[in-house]
Design goal:
Layout lengths: L4 E3 L4 E6 L3 E3 L6 E7 L4 E7 L15 H14 L7 E7 L2
Parallel strand pairs: 1-3
Antiparallel strand pairs: 2-5, 4-5, 4-6
């Protein structure tokens, strides 16, 4: 099977379709995975902080802005938000 292994760096997110694999390495950050099982589209965000109070900084660094951006990109890729499931890991 041919697939791309996509690494998500800190303060970023990626969206991809099956059979590609999204991965990251977490320390004190949080990884938020969203998956649309019907359309086989996934997203992974590597979040540093919960809220973006300084709109001049990278919005992918914050949960409130990165998740919204990731969902929009997933929708553009053909995902249906009604089919999304979420998994969260990290925060050590």
């Amino acid at each position: 099977m041919n697939f791309k292994l996509i690494t998500v760096p800190i303060a970023d997110y990626k969206v991809s379709k099956s059979p590609d694999i999204l991965r990251t390495i977490l320390g004190s950050c949080v990884g938020i995975c969203l998956y649309d099982i019907e359309n086989k589209i996934g997203g992974l965000a590597h979040i540093m902080l919960p809220e973006n109070n300084d709109k001049r900084t990278n919005p992918k660094k914050y949960a409130d802005s990165a998740i919204a951006m990731m969902i929009e990109e997933m929708k553009k890729s053909g995902s249906n938000v009604e089919h999304l499931t979420a998994k969260i890991a990290g925060g050590a």
